[in-house]
From TrEMBL:
Pfam families: BPD_transp_2. Keywords: Cell membrane, Membrane, Transmembrane, Transmembrane helix. This is ABC transporter permease. The chain crosses the membrane at residues 27-47, 59-78, 84-103, 110-132, 138-157, 208-237, 268-290, 339-358, 365-384, 396-414. It is a multi-pass membrane protein. The lineage of its organism: Bacteria, Bacillati, Actinomycetota, Actinomycetes, Kitasatosporales. PANTHER family: GUANOSINE ABC TRANSPORTER PERMEASE PROTEIN NUPQ, SUGAR ABC TRANSPORTER INTEGRAL MEMBRANE PROTEIN-RELATED. Residues 1-21 are annotated as: Disordered. It is found in: Cell membrane.
């Protein structure tokens, strides 16, 4: 018998009944981590006097910057859980920005939102046909989708926004005319009460008031939709038979096929949903952030979303934390500049010291020593300077992302068949 080489992994051995299963952190552990982080930020705010670290304005800005990144990361999660690497998220977001800006200007922002999702789905289906049906390398296909989306939107923008009615309304070859705003939500009474508490700058109380106030004041309906999509994705992928079958396509498609799962269908659904979510992220940028389509509007958020997904270990909760971290650091440097980012250095010192202690406790002496040395260098930087240089301030979000990814790399586990070519019946 001649052995054939395939790109798919061998069938996994069944687990014995009663074998211990790995579980995520419990709710109590998560709450303890959140409480510890809040106490740490409150202490740093009191020591440094930087009240903008957790103000309601800072939290609201961070949330607005985190939503498109989180939606891009959620799009990548859907695709990669089914075994398809989606580097084309950036292109699908670009398609979403154009579709939302184009239709949103001509009709209503709600139809623009739907059109942005539809344009993203179209980009996802192109990627699905190339990778699933024709077996094109996933990275090559994703890069091609990015290039095609960029070129197509640039051409269409010149075609639709450069003359006639669009030009008179404020359009040009690089942007659409403005669309109407989508509604915001504010909790009446509670928002004003929290703002009053925040102004007193009390330890912990004002910090908590600022964070909650930023989350419930002038909240876009698309942000609420994004939160529901995160919760719905977690429930659908981890609590339903559909999700189990879809994730099995990313872990071992041969075993899934042997159990009667239509692997092609589930992969197509996952990549189409991925494109729609990325398109929604692009529509958020066009309709909520700026109210217009702008060339280069995505700014690499599709790639950053992939980084947030990896940081989150291909799970919605961790992904949301990664997107929030990047949004927070980005908002910090955009709103406050070098003075507040300088206060963030002290927070980084404490985190690195805690990490060093944990690594030394786990007998990882080399890693603990590096973390401790880095903490000492950052502390020296903090003590002998009053402000972070502007060049470094602009790079803060990217430095934070790289630092977090490097520190979390050891606990990551991607789907086993992620990115592998699959052909029906290849396991026979």
């Amino acid at each position: 018998m001649t052995a054939t080489m395939t790109d798919a992994p061998p069938p996994a051995a069944p687990k014995a009944a009663g074998a211990p299963q790995r579980s995520g952190r419990s709710l109590g552990q998560i709450l303890m981590i959140v409480a510890g982080a809040l106490l740490l930020v409150a202490a740093v705010r009191m020591i440094t006097g930087s009240d903008q670290l957790d103000s309601s304005g800072q939290v609201a800005a961070a949330l607005g910057l985190a939503v498109p990144i989180g939606l891009a990361g959620l799009a990548g999660l859907w695709s990669e859980r089914a075994g398809v690497v989606n580097i084309g998220l950036e292109g699908m977001m670009i398609l979403g920005t154009f579709g939302a800006g184009w239709i949103g200007w001509q009709t209503s922002p709600w139809l623009g939102l739907l059109c942005g999702i539809g344009f993203g789905v179209l980009g996802g289906l192109v990627h699905a046909v190339a990778t699933i049906t024709f077996g094109v390398d996933h990275i090559v296909s994703g890069v091609a989708v990015n290039l095609l989306a960029l070129g197509a939107t640039q051409y269409l923008a010149k075609l639709f926004f450069a003359d006639g009615k669009a030009s008179e309304a404020g359009g040009n070859p690089k942007q659409s005319p403005p669309a109407d705003s989508l509604p915001d939500v504010t909790v009446p009474g509670l928002s004003d009460a929290l703002a009053s508490l925040e102004k007193h700058h009390w330890f912990l109380v004002s910090d908590l008031a600022g964070i909650i106030g930023g989350l419930i004041t002038n909240l876009s309906v698309v942000t609420i939709l994004a939160v529901l999509l995160f919760v719905g994705s977690w429930w659908l992928l981890w609590r339903t038979p559909f999700g189990l079958r879809l994730r099995s396509c990313g872990e071992n498609p041969i075993a899934a096929e042997s159990l009667g799962v239509n692997v092609y269908r589930y992969k197509y659904v996952a990549v189409a949903v991925s494109g729609g979510l990325a398109g929604l992220g692009g529509a958020f940028l066009a309709l909520v952030t700026s109210h217009t389509y702008l060339e280069g509007q995505t700014g690499g958020r599709g790639y950053i979303g992939l980084a947030a997904m990896i940081f989150g270990n291909w799970r919605p909760g961790g992904l949301a934390m990664g997107a929030g971290l990047f949004g927070y650091s980005d908002a910090l440097q955009l709103r406050n500049g070098g003075v507040t980012v300088h206060a963030l250095l002290l927070l980084l010192v404490v985190l690195l010291a805690l990490l060093a202690g944990w690594k030394l406790y786990k007998k990882a002496h080399w890693q603990g020593g590096i973390s401790l040395m880095t903490a000492a260098l950052v502390l020296v930087w903090y003590l002998f300077t009053d402000e972070v240089p502007s060049d470094f301030v602009g790079a803060t979000p990217y430095v934070v992302t790289l630092l977090v990814l490097s520190l979390s790399a050891q606990r990551l586990r991607m789907p086993k068949a992620d990115g592998m070519r699959y052909r029906k019946g290849q396991g026979k």
